[in-house]
Amino acid sequence: xxxxxxxxxxxxxxxxxxxxxxxxxxxxxxxxxxxxxxxxxxxxxxxxxxxxxxxxxxxxxxxxxxxxxxxxxxxxxxxxxxxxxxxxxxxxxxxxxxxxxxxxxxxxxxxxxxxxxxxxxxxxxxxxxxxxxxxxxxxxxxxxxxxxxxxxxxxxxxxxxxxxxxxxxxxxxxxxxxxxxxxxxxxxxxxxxxxxxxxxxxxxxxxxxxxxxxxxxxxxxxxxxxxxxxxxxxxxxxxxxxxxxxxxxxxxxxxxxxxxxxxxxxxxxxxxxxxxxxxxxxxxxxxxxxxxxxxxxxxxxxxxxxxxxxxxxxxxxxxxxxxxxxxxxxxxxxxxxxxxxxxxxxxxxxxxxxxxxxxxxxxxxxxxxxxxxxxxxxxxxxxxxxxxxxxxxxxxxxxxxxxxxxxxxxxxxxxxxxxxxxxxxxxxxxxxxxxxxxxxxxxxxxxxxxxxxxxxxxxxxxxxxxxxxxxxxxxxxxxxxxxxxxxxxxxxxxxxxxxxxxxxxxxxxxxxxxxxxxxxxxxxxxxxxxxxxxxxxxxxxxxxxxxxxxxxxxxxxxxxxxxxxxxxxxxxxxxxxxxxxxxxxxxxxxxxxxxxxxxxxxxxxxxxxxxxxxxxxxxxxxxxxxxxxxxxxxxxxxxxxxxxxx
Length: 646
Known about the structure:
Elements: E1 4-5, E2 17-20, E3 23-26, E4 31-33, E5 36-38, E6 41-45, E7 59-64, E8 67-70, E9 73-80, E10 83-87, E11 94-99, E12 102-105, E13 110-115, H1 120-136, E14 164-172, E15 175-183, E16 193-198, E17 201-206, E18 210-217, E19 221-230, E20 236-237, E21 247-250, E22 256-264, E23 274-279, E24 283-285, E25 295-304, E26 313-315, E27 320-336, E28 339-344, E29 350-359, E30 362-365, E31 372-375, E32 379-382, E33 386-389, E34 394-397, E35 399-401, E36 410-418, E37 421-425, E38 450-453, E39 459-469, E40 472-484, E41 493-498, E42 504-507, E43 511-516, E44 521-527, E45 537-540, E46 543-544, E47 552-555, E48 562-567, E49 579-581, E50 585-590, E51 593-598, E52 602-608, E53 613-619, E54 622-627, E55 632-637, E56 640-645
Parallel strand pairs: 1-5, 2-7, 3-8, 4-9, 5-9, 6-10, 7-11, 8-12, 9-13, 14-22, 23-25, 24-26, 25-27, 26-27, 27-28, 27-29, 28-30, 29-31, 30-40, 33-40, 41-48
Antiparallel strand pairs: 14-17, 15-16, 15-18, 18-21, 19-20, 19-22, 31-32, 32-35, 34-38, 36-37, 36-39, 39-40, 41-43, 42-44, 44-47, 45-46, 45-48, 49-50, 50-51, 51-54, 52-53, 52-55, 55-56
């Protein structure tokens, strides 16, 4: 019992030959139980000199997967592998007998075994039954003869059988995979011990009948499949597995691994969670925070890469949350239906790009990175890096657009930076009392958009601008540096150079212009017909300047000589949709993925046919792949343009 055999080579010169995978002959009272043979039996009869049988005699070639002859009991056993015996001589008098379990039945034979496919549940049940017989019925090995098999006595003589196997649970994606199982006690009346394992875990199991397994997706995820791997065999998907519902899995005598695959449909962070890196799934913040305390969720270099037509980050109406950001975060379309504020983590540097906010609740940006919010309480601000004030003092104001709001909907809160702390400035005019939903103290708010700067009060100032309309509240903040001129005669002017570009008409035209310190300069750019597929890239130094809604480019708060650079304007080219290749560059699209192969580092600009810049991609040497939403795009790389449709 409890035997195994996994391969050998046998040769002999006898005319007839009989082979058994485990034993040659299992006699009348013999028992073979809980055993297996793994391997192919490949018998071949070859001619040996002139030793051929005569035609008047019968000769045999016999092979059985477990035994050649059986007259006893073979139970709860299996053989895995083919069995064959081939006559390679010219003599046709050989009789050939083969079988996966036995070659010949000698009467009284009992077989409870498995050919090739093994029913694990039955095998383990039989092991359990045998263990019971050993411990309760006191079976003994009466047929074991010490004078046979070289006097070898099996170590498990008169003891319960043991099946040991290695079992592992793995998870791919956001979800949990767990399994419970019962372990039999040492005595017949012992209650089984119930144990539980969770992914990612590997355990050694003994005498296990079956596992009860449950695959549970995390919030916002979907269970795609559960697979099984046996002893490095090909991965096989299990059928009819439902998320969160337990299913039975029979233990195997082979090492087994169950793998649950989950797909994240929506990222749903909880209070205190950190969201990091790039995600192709939208983020949904729901049911966090309370009237007493806002939830804190941390965003570190988050890039929500989904279709621009879809909401990337949504805050539900039952949420009160502070988004603490660090690094560069690209949040896409942010829709606030609850109470949300955005802050920079203490001691960290941060930036917020490609983020558009729709506010249907209470929204506050404390970073100054958000300059426009749409919705019922729409509001936008235009940053001013510097404001110049006459020596005798004067008033300053921030540039903002409240989308034709009634003045009664607007309020302002001014602060000045002193000793690295922002302190409130309180002009003496009527206070505008806000509802307690505002983050700012009501007695600090006022209805004046300007503030008086007295001599000696230069420095950094910031203004919080709040619009409240029908319960929707939007608050943005903008910061500026205030400087005094020493005298009227000391006004400083700086040169601004606008280049001449082939394929574009500039207004005003190319040239060098004098601009007062702290002033601004704006110009428009119109592409000529033969260049209208180009995407102009306008820069001041390394900073890209985007056009305003009226198409004009504006440089504000000028404090030094400036040279504007304009690139990306080349003649239109017509290229195929599938693949474009130059000497050092190859661009093609396949199954929604843009491929760019470049021999040197650079930058690719993806532009929609409507002329909007969709994405700028930093290209390393080699191949770059990025998923692109369905549509048509112009890809600009150096001075080349490519048209791709997905």
